[in-house]
Amino acid sequence: MENSNPRSEGKVAKAIEEQTSKLPSDVFLWASLASMGVSLTLKCFGKNHTALFVGQWAAPFLLLGIYNKIVKVEGSD
To answer: At residue 77, does pLDDT exceed 70?
Structure first.
């Protein structure tokens, strides 16, 4: 058995964390702000459903940024 720790991360999670940890945390903040800006622009042009769809991306981007920061500080295992 490779790792006997029952709380260890799976192969997929480790691969994702390895790649996302290479990104600066600012990327997720800027992506969130950009989605809000695009959403506002779409709303101004009367594209209400699309504006709502794009505007909802802000929270997941911020959550990904928090996850990225935790992985960088605490590590995955």
So the answer is: no
Q: Which long-range contacts (CB under 8 A, 24 or more apart) does 28-35 make?
A: 28/61, 28/62, 28/64, 28/65, 28/68, 29/61, 29/62, 29/65, 31/57, 31/61, 32/57, 32/58, 32/59, 32/61, 32/62, 32/65, 33/58, 35/61
Q: How many CB atoms lie within 10 A of CB 35?
A: 20
| pLDDT tens per residue across span 10-67 | 888 888 888 888 888 899 999 999 999 999 999 999 999 999 999 999 999 999 999 8
Task: Give dist(CA 50, CA 54) in Å, integer.
Answer: 6
